[in-house]
Design a protein that fits this description.
With 177 residues, the chain is mostly helical. Helix content is 77%, strand content 0%. The protein has seven helices and no strands. The protein has helices at 6-26, 38-69, 74-79, 81-101, 104-118, 127-151, 161-176. Helix 2 (38-69) runs antiparallel to helix 4 (81-101), helix 2 (38-69) packs parallel to helix 5 (104-118) and helix 2 (38-69) packs antiparallel against helix 6. The radius of gyration is 26 Å and the shape is flat. The protein starts with 5 loop residues before the first helix and ends with a helix.
């Protein structure tokens, strides 16, 4: 007496095939970034930080030249507008990359950084007020960096006692210098 019918055999082969295909589908070679992987997220965060640093540096120089040279700098600044537009579009593209693969708190910090960079008033005549705006950009960048480090698990977790002790010792030594 046979307990296995052709229908049962076909179902067993199909189930085995789906399990094998699931295991093969999970295989990822080392070094190949996947959407949402640590490597992918780190690259997106790095791209945003680089783009924001370039954009901020350019805006800072642009505003400083306009403030110090006045109308004499208008021709030079007018020639540099395409570069400024390119940098701002690169910054927006990097933000989209973070939105694609980042977690919610990283996306919020990234949007804060881009908004602070966009809020820089390049026509600000008062150097003190412009410096306050620049400080807001630096604070937003530092906050994003901290959130990214936490998201990528670069900071010591509560259970990593030895790592936290080494980190505190290093920071204490740096403060003593």
């Amino acid at each position: 007496m046979t307990f296995i019918t052709p229908g049962m055999a076909a179902a067993g082969i199909k189930a085995t095939g789906s399990v094998a295909s699931a295991l093969i589908g999970r295989y990822r070679p080392t070094g190949v970034p996947r959407l949402g992987s640590n490597e992918d997220r780190a690259e997106a965060y790095r791209r945003l930080l680089d783009a924001s640093a370039r954009s901020f540096g350019y805006a800072y120089q642009f505003a400083h030249l306009r403030r110090e040279a006045g109308r004499a700098a208008n021709k030079v600044l007018l020639g540099q507008l395409p570069q400024a537009w390119e940098l701002s579009s690169e910054l927006i593209g990097a933000l989209q990359g973070v939105r694609l693969c980042g977690s919610a708190h990283v996306i919020a910090a990234a949007e804060t950084l881009v908004a602070a960079t966009g809020d820089l008033d390049l026509n600000e005549k008062n150097a003190g007020r412009f410096q306050q705006q620049a400080d807001a950009v630096v604070a937003a960048r530092d906050a994003l960096l901290d959130v990214c480090r936490e998201d990528l698990a670069y900071t010591a977790r509560w259970w990593q006692v030895r790592r936290r002790i080494k980190e505190r010792r290093f920071l204490r030594e740096q403060a003593e210098r």
